[in-house]
Amino acid sequence: MLPLRLVIDTNILISGLLKPEGLEHAILFFSLTPPATWFISSQVLDEYQEVSSRSELRIKPKRRRELFALIHSRTITIEPDIKINFLIDPKDDKFLECAEAARADYLISGNLKHFPKFWKTTKIISAREFIEGVVLHLDTK
């Protein structure tokens, strides 16, 4: 199934920034290069920016600028025309809205308890499940 259409939850983005040796960092790198296409909405981007700028995370401004330059240049921004009120945490609905509008194959999250296993055609999956179950089995020929 190539190309892969992805939506990434904020917790994956933050973990990828904080742990360069972690699976989440590998997902960020993978998501910014073919065969992946990373989809965001303005609401998702706003959350990425707000959370990554929290002082307690101690993410250096230069690192944030570099990441957001990549996000702006290598993601596809869509504006969902649907409103979902489904999840336990309503702040997470924006990710389902983005995934549905993008017809995403995967929504990658570190917080699976807030999401169903599937939303329409999108599978909601952890970082480990994505790396081990999807990336390692890609045939890019």
TrEMBL record:
Q: Which Gene3D superfamilies match?
A: 5'-nuclease
Query: Taking every annotated instance into account, which residue ranges of this chain make up the domain PIN?
Result: 4-116
InterPro entries, per database record: PIN-like_dom_sf, PIN_dom, PIN_toxin-like
Q: Which SMART domains match?
A: PINc (SM00670)
Question: What's a Pfam family in this record?
Answer: PIN_3
Specify the domain of life of the species encoding this protein.
Answer: Bacteria
Q: What is this protein called?
A: Putative toxin-antitoxin system toxin component, PIN family
Organism listed in the record: Candidatus Doudnabacteria bacterium RIFCSPHIGHO2_01_FULL_46_24
